[in-house]
Amino acid sequence: MNQVAVVILNWNGRHFLERFLPSVIQHSGQAKIVVADNASTDDSVEFVKKHFPSVEIILIPTNQGYTGGYNYALPKVEAKYYVLLNSDIEVTPGWLEPVIALMEKDSSIAACQPKIKSFAEKNKFEYAGAAGGFIDKLGYPFCRGRIFDSVETDEGQYNDTREIFWATGACLFVRSTAYYEAGGLDNDFFAHMEEIDLCWRLQHAGYKIYYCGNSEVYHVGGGTLTKSNPRKTYLNFRNNIALLYKNLPHKGFYRKILLRLLLDGLAGMKFFVSESPMHSFSVMKAHFSIYSSIKKLHNKRHNGKTVDNLRNVYPGSIAYDYFVRKKKKFIDLKF
Question: pTM for the complete prediction?
Answer without folding.
Answer: 0.94
